[in-house]
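step: validate -> pass
step: tokenize input -> pass
step: predict -> running
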Amino acid sequence: MAEILIDAQPGETRIALVEDGRLAEVEVARRDALSAVGDIYLGRAEAVLPALDAAFIDIGLERSGFLALPEARPYGAEGGDDGIGDYVGEGDKVLVQVQRDPFQDKGAKLTTHITLPGAVLVMTPERPGIGLSKRIAGEEARGRVRARIQDLAGDGFIARTAAAEAGEEAIGRDLAALRDAWAEIDAKRARAKAPARLHAELDPVLRWLRDAGAPERIVIDDSGILARARAYAERLRPELADRLHHHSGSAPLFEAHGIEEQIDAALDPAVALSGGGGIVIEETRALTAIDVDTGAGGSRGGREEAALRTNVEATGEIARQVRLRNLAGLLVVDFVSMRRRDHGGRVLEALRQALALDPCYPQVTGFTRLGLVEMTRRRRRPSLAEVLRGRDSGGPLKSALTVAFDVLRAVGREARAMPGAALGVTAAPDVIQALQGAAGDALAAAETSLGRPLGLTPDPARPREGFHVAAGDG
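step: predict -> pass
step: emit ->
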């Protein structure tokens, strides 16, 4: 059973995908750090660098975006002897789409290969032909879907996995919406002055509804967001309209489903395996290292059998943690060493199968000469640790802003337990500063709900996560 749970407060929306009671994926979207992935801009080339075969494009963000030669090369153009200067000149206007958000000291990664995703189809307005999702299996099924899309939509579309089961009405809705969106982009492009944003990707809640597949339930704790989600579903995904529900229980939504504990666990480097072994995950600027250990599981059977058993079990948990933590870029796995080559093949196959349903399409390259397994995963947005820990993503502490939102959730719990009471918070100074700054909208909403100001007391002796909420002045 799959459910989507949406917990919202001013300034922060958290979206959780729960599969069979376990947290499979989570996104934390904050108003001051919304993703630009999918946004389409009319940019201006600031610098063209033949030595890098890349260009820097001003799209109006803090840092210029990076456009590499493969992403600048038009569909159908043959590579080899060409260079970035064949397609982009300094001062040129360039229609680009954000593939990856700015990351650390790097600007957004850009492409000129525009795609407009719908629930069933992806429009590729400047690319001819019909593409198919890799997850539509079987030549007969793929041929049938291709012919159907060609007949109903024509060239310039990719059939998503959902297209294999979609009826003509669903395809028609998607087709009309995508064509309208492209017509609007084209019209804005003709009159815009670069840099300018021509199209914004859906906000996180609606994007999840579009890409959701067929969850049994979608539970939202905010009535305004629920109304907006229902309007979107009735227009473009009517099959989901009856699956939208409002959470009105006494316990907060994520607490009622055990999500808070699972999010906290996803920040812990160590993950236990049921067979007695474990994995340790360490994120660094350059890569993510994953170490597998037999632990107590190494005491059963011979060494080789214990290593194989632990490694195969670890592949499933690695795939789950990679998706849950939104790990991306280069990932290196140090499995328990094995002597037999066929055992290594079994572990690789198990890892590839475990990763097969990941929407970011991880690629496993195999064992290196040093016995490590390398894999890559597309980076679109920051990892869960980067969002919740900020610049301290490699350390043990949540960021002050993350704790500020935790404080306001705790205030909500206390307010429900003690209606009408004056509440106060004692917290580390940087948490109080975050409450009064980046989380100011959420603080104002909490105070409106309380009917009075919330007492805020900075305490330099308190650890960042050691806040206290109580009746009175805290």
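step: describe -> The radius of gyration is 25 Å.
step: cleanup -> pass
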